[in-house]
Amino acid sequence: MIKDKRKKQKIGKEIEQDMLEKQANKVFLGIGSNLGNKKLNIENAKLHLELNKNFRIFKTSKFYKTKSWPNPKMPNFLNIVIEGETYLKPLDLLFFLKKIEKILGRKPAKKNSPRMCDIDIIDFGHKCLKLYDRKSFVITPHPRLEERNFVLIPLFEISKNWKHPRSNIKISQLLKQIDTKDLRSITVE
């Protein structure tokens, strides 16, 4: 009986220590869809994020409609950006996001093909990261962030003071360098 008490105390301390080691990181994710019910796909992706105990959503941008890139003849995209917090490590977050994409019907296809759900890590803890696993990699901030109006505008909407982790350039300055004419926020029923 005394041994059991010591085990419980020891386990309790280990669990407590483990919880102290976990650190939350602020993250920004871009979520897009250009197949099926785009709004529902995005809402379902958000729901999967919210159901994970290691992820919390703080802010969500409006929906933005854009032409598909690089082939504008493909179906238009609907996009949002969310600000959240995660206890997951960067690669674990990537695996979790890929799992959500798969659950929502994303199939292996050529790069830039239409998709039910696409979730990108835009920024992880305001760090510059390049992490590789056998099949996957995480680069933050997203390598083409500065070129993407469908990321910068919704990101500015929810985080006006955000600065690029690598260049330290304010988002308001980045917005002045891109074309915004084909992007518009929309109310989606």
Largest sheet: 6 strands, antiparallel
Gap between N and C termini: 61 Å
Which CATH architecture?
Answer: 2-Layer Sandwich
Fraction in helix: 25-40%
CATH superfamily: 7,8-Dihydro-6-hydroxymethylpterin-pyrophosphokinase HPPK
What is the percentage of strand-forming residues? 15-25%
Number of strands: 8
Domains (count): 1
Whole-number radius of gyration?
19 Å
Number of helices: 5
Q: What fold name goes in the CATH topology slot?
A: Alpha-Beta Plaits
Mean pLDDT: 84
Q: Give the oligomer, counting copies of the same chain as homo and different chains as hetero.
A: single chain
Order of helices and strands: HEHEEEHEEEHHE
Return residue spans where pLDDT drops below 50 for at least 5 consecutive residues: 4-20
Features:
34% helix; single chain; 6-stranded antiparallel β-sheet; alpha+beta; Alpha-Beta Plaits; 189 residues; globular; two-stranded antiparallel sheet
In words, what does this structure look like?
The chain has 189 residues and is α+β, with helices and mostly antiparallel strands. It is 34% helix and 25% strand. It has one domain (23-186): 2-Layer Sandwich (Alpha-Beta Plaits), CATH 3.30.70.560. The chain has helices at 2-21, 38-51, 90-103, 149-158, 171-176, and strands at 25-33, 55-60, 63-66, 77-86, 118-124, 129-132, 137-140, 184-186. Strands 1, 2, 3, 4, 5 and 8 form a six-stranded antiparallel sheet that branches. β6 and β7 (137-140) form a beta hairpin. The longest helix has 20 residues, at 2-21. Residues 4-20 have low confidence and may be disordered.
